[in-house]
Amino acid sequence: MWQDNNNVYGASSSQNQYYAQGRAPQQGVPLQFYAPSPVGSTFYPGARSSLDGNVGAQGSIAQQGAPPTYGGNIQPSGGWWTAFGTGGFEGEPPLLEELGINFSHIRAKSLAVLNPLRQVDERIMDDADLAGPLLFFLCFGTFLLFSGKPQFGYIYGVGLLGSASIYMLLNLMSEKGIDAYRVVSVLGYCLLPMVGVGAISVGVTLDGLIGYVLSSLSIIWCTYAASGIFVAVLRMSDQRFLVAYPVGLLYGCFALLSVFNVGVGGSGSAK
Amino acid sequence: MQLGQSAVAAGQDYVQKNLGGLIPVSVMKYHFNVSNSYVVKKIRLLLFPWRHKWSRRVHRTENGQPEWQPPRDDVNSPDLYIPLMALVTYILLAALYSGLQARFHPEILGITASKALAVVLLDFIFVKLGCYFLNIQGGMSNQVLDVLAYDGYKFVGVIMTLIAGLLNVGRTLYSLVFLYSFFATAFFLLRSLRHMVLPDASATAAPVNPAQRSRRITFLFLVAVTQIVYMGILVRV
After folding, report:
1. Residues of B with CB below 8 A from A150's CB?
2. Is ipTM beyond 0.90?
3. Which InterPro entries match (chain B) (predicted)?
4. DSSP-assigned letter for residue B66
């Protein structure tokens, strides 16, 4: 039902179509990929123009390449060694599109998520892409590295454990379930204010009054955004604060990692 | 991406088939069926349990079996949301404490978590062993989750004490807060477990003779008093 909703957020549905048809057994039958689906012609307008330089309609690109082999029906005309050459296969899609990373989409979703004054649309996170959250986690870790706290392992551990617990908690607390990809996607997108505070921590140390205030503000902002999305998507009644509290604890854990330097004494070594 | 999703779906099916019976999800859902007002009322009850009516409300389900009402409708019903949140808050508060004293290390999170889980496990084993030796029957509710819930409520008192410590209120006030939270938690546990351990005459369990009754009352008091030991361990962050 939501696959018909093809505004900015409908990208992944057509992308799944793309891969589903791409994996079908190739008997040399030309897959009429772009011609019958007007869906394909309107998604990724930004990415197409930046990658191919063609701002025109997508249909023209389809007919420019050889019709039978474009659009997922990759038939290697050389042997297997052409995979290692620079020629590439005929009709191979661009790398970012094949990986499912769409920068303009990520930017649009981040801006929509972070604006605290907007109405939360229930379908905002229907296409759960993990590229944006992964990017944000890596940026967070990098900023912490630059500020003297190389804690990638702990960020990964807290992120994984926290996402798993929130997934379990949300499924237990709501009537309608939620799947894990969407949980990680929402949590990752709402981490953006914390990444901003991490960037600040490169210049200014956060272990002081202004650091505490900034971190608390970012926790509140992240939590407000994430709980709004969860309550809207899961249609929970009267439980927004109950969803916000564990999410706030998770972001509080991230803030702890970014504010406090590892003490000289450690956890048991001699001073 | 498509392949990954189908692989995850297949994995979930496998887990569901083989391990689905181990963790009864529907039973746990009952304990998480809470609302905002329930949480507020319950926390107020945990911190001030002195004047309250303690009977749980029963209603009959579709197949005629009597069962307790879910936490959303009945303040006296134990839930697992508050204990779980209190446990995680306690761990984070302990880490914050150590950070403010300039001895933070991410390992503290793990160490505190292990300590807290060990205390809960110890208390749970003690209560279950006592129930086993005194031949206390299960009754209408799932005993394991209920006992775990009651054990987890002590973290709320510990958190209150830790907050008082963070605010640097001085030694006497700190010990006063600690003693008050111990008494409140002990009283709360006494009144809540009373229904499990000393069933009313109208309940479905077998009637209890006076000797057994006095032994059970002693057991109840023991459970309540050992809370100070556990809280004392937990407060030392």
Report:
1. none
2. no
3. Yif1_fam
4. E
The vertex-A99 CA angle with A98 and A103, nearest 5°, equals 105
Q: Per-residue pLDDT averaged across A86-95, rounded?
A: 73
State the residue range of the domain holding B160.
2-234
Residue B64, SS3 per DSSP: coil
What is the DSSP code (8-state) at residue A91?
T
What backbone phi and psi angles, to 5 degrees, belong to A249? -65, -40
* ∠ CA A185-A186-A190, rounded to 5°: 115
Smallest Cβ–Cβ distance between B85 and the set A19, A172, A245 belongs to A245
* Gap between the Cα atoms of B116 and B235, Å rounded: 10
Task: Using DSSP, state whether B135 is helix, strand or coil.
Answer: coil
Residues A208 and A221 sit within 8 Å (Cβ to Cβ)? no
- pLDDT for B164-200, tens place per residue? 888 888 888 889 999 999 988 888 888 888 777 666 5
Reported as a single tens digit per residue, the pLDDT across A111-124 is 877 776 666 666 66
* Per-position b or e across A111-141, b if 16+ CB within 10 A of its CB: ebbbeeeeebeeebbbbbbbbbbebbbebbb
Minimum distance, in Å, between the CA of residue A118 and any CA atom of chain B: 23
Which positions 153-182 of A are in contact with B (Cβ < 8 Å)? 154, 158, 169, 171-173, 180-181
Domain total of chain B: 1
How many degrees, rounded to 5, is the angle at CA A174 between CA A173 and CA A178? 110
Contact B35 A238 (CB under 8 A): yes
**Angle at CA A192, nearest 5°, toward B90 and A223?**
40
Q: Which residue has the tokens 């761990």?
A: B91
Whether residue B235 contacts residue B162, with contact meaning beta carbons closer than 8 Å, is answered with yes
